[in-house]
User: Which sequence fits this backbone?
C-alpha cells in the first residue's frame, strides 16, 4: 500500500543526531549523566519535583504500581486483592501491572464523547474496597481532574495517571500527568516526542521517588541518595552499597542515547503541540457536525495524539467498509487503543469485575477507529480523508 496519511512520522532531525554522536563518543551507553539531565529538564518543564526516566511508558506504569507495595505510608500502600478502578478503554499496559501484582480491577464505562472515564459511573462504582483510581488520558485528552480530584479526596483513595498518550495536555492550566500521586509518560516513536523507546514517571512525593529509583535498577541501593526514605542513611562505603538489594526490582533503565535525543525533543515540544492543535482545529471544523461520524470532545487543552472517529448510532455503515476504503487510499488507521478491553482474550487471566454496563466502550469497540496527527501541517491529508469519507454510503 502506498501510504499517503501515516499513523506516525519521525520527529528526529540533525540536532538529535548530533547529540547521539556526542553520547556515543562518551562511550557511556547505560543510564548516566545525560539521562539525569533529561530527567531534570522533564521535571522542570512539567512543573513537578521528581522525574524518573525508564525504558518505556509501559514500564513506567509497571513501576508506578510496584512502588505502592513498598511505601511506609499506609494510606498510599497497596496489597494484593485491593480494588482498583480503571476505564474500560485504555492501553493494555495500563491494566497488566495491576493483574501482575494481584490487584482486582473494576472496569467502568467511558464517556462516548470524551473517551475518558464516565465520572458519574466512576463515582457510583466506588465501594469500601476501592483503594485506587487509575485514570487514563486518552488520545491526548485530559480527564476532568477537578471532579476526579474531588472524588478521590471525598473517598480518600489514591489517584494515579496513565498519561502516555497525552504529553503536553493541560487541564485548568496544569499539565496532565501531574494531578495524581504519580503520572506516566511515553516517548515512543509515534508519540508527542521520541526517544526511540522510553518513558518517564513524575511525582511530587519524595518517598515514592526514592522507591522508584530503587525499583528501576535491580532493587539495589546504589542510585539512592545518602539520606533517603527507603533505607534511611546509606553507608559511605561504595563497595558495601554497590550490590546491596533491598526491594524486588527490575532492570528498566533507559539508555544515554535516549536521554540525548530526549533533551533536544523536549525543547521542541511546544512547537510540536502547537502544530498538532492547529491540525485539530481544521479536523474539528470539518468533522464536528458530520452526519456519520462522532469525534472526540476536548476536555481542557488536548495535545491531540490522534483523531478518533466513531460511527454514530443508527448509521448502517459497517466499520470494515470504512477501514477498507481508508486502506485502499493509503490512510493508516487503528482501533481506538484496546477497544473494550474486557473483550480481549487476555482477560481470562484477570481478577476483575464490571460496574454496570460498558455500552460506550462496546460501541467504541465495534464502531471506532483513529487516524494520526503529527507535528507538521496535515491540512491537505485531513481534507483528503474528509472527502474520502463523504463518499461512503
Assistant:
Amino acid at each position: 500500500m502506498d501510504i499517503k496519511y501515516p499513523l506516525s512520522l519521525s520527529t528526529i532531525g540533525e540536532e538529535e543526531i548530533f547529540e547521539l554522536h556526542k553520547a556515543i563518543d562518551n562511550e557511556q551507553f547505560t543510564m548516566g549523566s545525560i539521562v539525569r539531565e533529561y530527567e531534570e529538564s522533564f521535571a522542570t518543564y512539567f512543573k513537578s519535583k521528581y522525574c524518573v526516566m525508564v525504558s518505556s511508558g509501559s514500564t513506567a506504569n509497571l513501576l508506578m504500581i510496584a512502588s505502592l507495595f513498598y511505601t511506609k505510608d499506609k494510606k498510599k500502600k497497596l496489597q494484593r486483592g485491593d480494588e482498583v478502578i480503571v476505564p474500560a478503554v485504555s492501553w493494555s499496559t495500563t491494566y497488566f501491572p495491576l493483574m501482575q501484582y494481584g490487584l482486582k480491577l473494576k472496569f467502568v464505562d467511558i464517556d462516548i464523547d470524551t473517551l475518558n472515564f464516565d465520572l458519574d459511573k466512576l463515582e457510583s462504582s466506588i465501594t469500601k474496597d476501592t483503594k485506587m483510581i487509575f485514570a487514563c488520558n486518552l488520545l491526548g485528552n485530559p480527564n476532568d481532574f477537578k471532579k476526579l480530584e474531588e472524588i478521590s479526596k471525598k473517598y480518600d483513595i489514591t489517584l494515579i495517571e496513565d498519561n502516555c498518550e497525552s504529553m503536553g495536555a493541560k487541564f485548568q492550566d496544569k499539565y496532565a500527568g501531574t494531578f495524581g500521586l504519580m503520572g506516566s509518560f511515553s516517548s515512543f516513536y509515534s508519540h508527542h516526542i521520541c526517544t526511540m523507546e522510553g518513558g518517564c514517571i513524575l511525582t511530587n512525593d519524595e518517598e515514592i521517588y526514592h522507591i522508584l529509583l530503587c525499583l528501576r535498577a535491580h532493587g539495589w541501593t546504589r542510585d539512592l541518595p545518602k539520606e533517603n526514605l527507603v533505607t534511611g542513611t546509606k553507608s559511605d562505603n561504595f563497595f558495601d552499597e554497590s550490590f546491596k538489594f533491598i526491594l524486588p526490582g527490575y532492570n528498566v533503565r533507559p539508555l544515554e542515547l535516549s536521554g540525548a535525543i530526549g533533551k533536544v525533543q523536549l525543547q521542541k515540544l511546544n512547537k510540536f503541540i502547537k502544530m498538532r492543535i492547529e491540525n485539530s482545529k481544521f479536523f474539528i471544523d470539518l468533522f464536528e457536525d458530520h452526519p456519520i461520524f462522532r469525534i472526540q470532545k476536548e476536555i481542557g487543552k488536548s495535545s491531540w495524539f490522534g483523531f478518533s472517529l466513531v460511527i454514530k448510532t443508527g448509521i448502517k455503515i459497517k466499520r470494515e467498509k470504512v477501514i477498507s476504503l481508508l486502506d485502499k487510499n493509503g490512510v493508516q488507521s487503528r482501533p481506538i487503543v484496546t477497544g473494550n478491553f474486557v473483550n480481549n482474550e487476555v482477560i481470562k487471566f484477570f481478577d476483575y469485575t464490571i460496574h454496570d454496563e460498558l455500552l460506550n466502550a462496546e460501541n467504541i469497540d465495534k464502531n471506532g477507529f483513529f487516524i494520526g496527527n503529527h507535528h507538521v501541517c496535515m491540512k491537505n491529508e485531513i481534507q483528503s480523508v474528509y472527502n474520502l469519507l463523504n463518499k461512503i454510503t
The mean pLDDT is 97. The chain has two domains: 14-262, 269-389. The first strand starts at residue 50 and ends at 54.
